[in-house]
From TrEMBL, chains A, B:
Family annotation (Gene3D superfamilies): FAD/NAD(P)-binding domain
Required co-factors: FAD
Domain of life of the organism encoding this protein: Bacteria
GO molecular function: oxidoreductase activity
Statement: the UniProt record of this protein carries the keyword Flavoprotein: yes
Domain Pyridine nucleotide-disulphide oxidoreductase dimerisation stretches: 336-438
Family: Belongs to the class-III pyridine nucleotide-disulfide oxidoreductase family.
Keywords noted in UniProt: FAD, Flavoprotein, Oxidoreductase, Redox-active center
Protein name: NADPH-dependent 2,4-dienoyl-CoA reductase/sulfur reductase-like enzyme
Amino acid sequence: MNARPRLIVIGGDAAGMSAASQARRLRGPEELDILAFERGRHTSYSACGIPYLVAKTVSSAEDLVARDPETFRRDHAVDVRTGTEVVGVDLDRRTVTARGPGGEETEERFDDLVFATGAVPVRPPLPGIDARGVFGVQTLADGIAVRSYVDEERPSCAVVVGGGYIGLEMAEAFVERGLRVRLVEAAAEPMGTLDPDMGALVRTALTGMGVEVHMGEPATALRTEGGRVRAVATEKGEYPADIVVLGLGVRPNSALARAAGLEIGPTGGIAVDARMRTSAEGVWAAGDCVESFHRISRRPVSIALGTHANKQGRVAGTNIGGGYARFGGVLGTAISKVCGLEVARTGLNEAEARAAGFAFETETLASTTRAGYYPGAATVTTKILAERRTRRLLGAQIVGWENAGKRIDTLAAALWGGMTVEDLAGLDLGYAPPFSPVWDPVQITARKLAERM
Amino acid sequence: MNARPRLIVIGGDAAGMSAASQARRLRGPEELDILAFERGRHTSYSACGIPYLVAKTVSSAEDLVARDPETFRRDHAVDVRTGTEVVGVDLDRRTVTARGPGGEETEERFDDLVFATGAVPVRPPLPGIDARGVFGVQTLADGIAVRSYVDEERPSCAVVVGGGYIGLEMAEAFVERGLRVRLVEAAAEPMGTLDPDMGALVRTALTGMGVEVHMGEPATALRTEGGRVRAVATEKGEYPADIVVLGLGVRPNSALARAAGLEIGPTGGIAVDARMRTSAEGVWAAGDCVESFHRISRRPVSIALGTHANKQGRVAGTNIGGGYARFGGVLGTAISKVCGLEVARTGLNEAEARAAGFAFETETLASTTRAGYYPGAATVTTKILAERRTRRLLGAQIVGWENAGKRIDTLAAALWGGMTVEDLAGLDLGYAPPFSPVWDPVQITARKLAERM
């Protein structure tokens, strides 16, 4: 037994390894032992990069790994144990039970503990879901498997089930790989985190890219032949598929924390405060497994995203290391790209704003990404929601072509700062013809909304 | 004589015509006469587009004209008189004296008056400055003249005098037109609104683009031959030039307002309040001729830029039309591009922060515009200044390649909202591999600065 304080991290991806690195930065190996368990083979990889690995936009899986286990061991003195799953946590005895690659179990004591157990993909009990050729795309191992399957089995048609971010990115990947692509989604429009009017723009663009879009059609079964997927069935039709990717979203992986007796919030994520403390002393959580404070709705939300995981892990690590840090909450900002179309959102959409009890107005406006006369000026449609009485911004959505999407950051900063539509319309943003019309698209939209309110 | 109230606008470009249009929107032709004098031929054109007209990125001068005089007359019932210069204003009698194209003078009464007289280019009394082949690039007529000269005289080498935004954009234009380009600038680095360390990045990039950069060399004379420019002389050398463009900045064109007895501020711009009212009742001013409140230094500044002109004109027009609007001030945000290099800034640079009496820290950090593994990830260097005690952001600068520059908007929004470096580091910005590393470059820089403070 070692007398040094010991930090155990459960989960070796963005949140867990950010916590480990940051704790190490503040407390050297002579002050703190750090042990990290990862049930997979990889640490600290970019899960968001998986579609680009499949598309071969990114050449190898190693490119997605920010730091491998060996680097953590060597440069950060973090004892990373891959292929090892934590199967039990005893908060009273302050121990975890870990099951190694060979099935052997060991018990390890901790002083501080970080849950960074990530998310589990939604996987409905559809007939045929376990057939060959059906993939999730959550882990790097998944991504490698999909890519190998495309390389080796040479599928000619793909069905993507689920029209959210990952679904769209996988659709793009298959288009790039030359497959015929169909998208099957239960909702009326793709990108359910956008309002349907903005989602419709995405659907139209997808169709223009040659993706066959089936909206309002939940998948009901996967047809198989000799254990291999052959089609995706909905109530309206059957779509041939040599490969199927499930992109139905994820939920917080909080089972272990729940079993240990930690408080789980209403969204199913581990409840944490702004310092990433759970309900138990010296036990922290970060990343996709927690729920976060939404700055506009002021409610807890679970949003699986690498940026939050990194920031939250860092906050936990700083506090564990004796520093002081707080996580400021989230706005639900997200951005994606599918074959040149850029899609972004921040804050609340209409349904979310209604659910949060806001009375609001919206404005949707099409403008251009550059001065209209400048070559490459492309359409960008911006939608803004603002509260009726206070005129404060509640949310925004952007759908447009090259250079459209990152404008969401201006809106995110404005939302973060509690600005009104007039504040946004008045901001001193960068203007030159290659970058923007003289009134930036987000500001024209804000101005129009202000005029009406 | 007409009994209807009458608005006279002096200057038919962005600020003046925004004021006219907005006043018209609020008060119809039966309620308000609007008369606008423009001494040139064009109204409401994009002066910022001139370099692209010269480069032939934009095909014709008409493309830069948002609305021509005829459109204003027909659709907005604004009596636009081009080729007509206002030569005197009598505030007591509430009249202006205008000199028409034929030299004839008329006197016109007003109830409300808007000064939108723009800026005058700095034009030092250098020997040879009036030679053929020497151009300013302030008005659309200037742009047309430069383009014609390149088309017809086929100059092979150009010297751009002045390394600010317009100088760089003209250097780019000449590179695109196939000329050999030299840039001559008095300061040690180009882009004087950046700090020298960031300006040095621009200089290096310019050199890489084949532009011969002569810094620390004020032009002392223009050599001529038969009335035509042949070279630009500095204390260090003489540089052959078939064409010379002067990009030495501008100052507010406030002579007419001064002569009329209006209060002129310390920067030489017309003093206005947030509603764009001058020191005289019913007399307004907007655009390059005024001085604006700088939100960080809290001092008046004169910044000639189309965005401010548009917003200020609109504010004046709203107030004249019986509405209520205020201009929120400026941050000095600016963005430009030279052969793929993007340069942007907002708030105060080091010299400005010192002059404003701030104690501050800075951080400069190189990152990438996309996830490092994503194709097209390019270098972006971000510099951030923050006040020492409050940790509030004071300013930021960006120099980088494709997709670098517009990130200045995030910083501008953060500055506008009075955020600290920690606020900025915590923002929920859009992340996906094609758009950003998992920590956006502006946030990594903010985080590093926060760690040090």
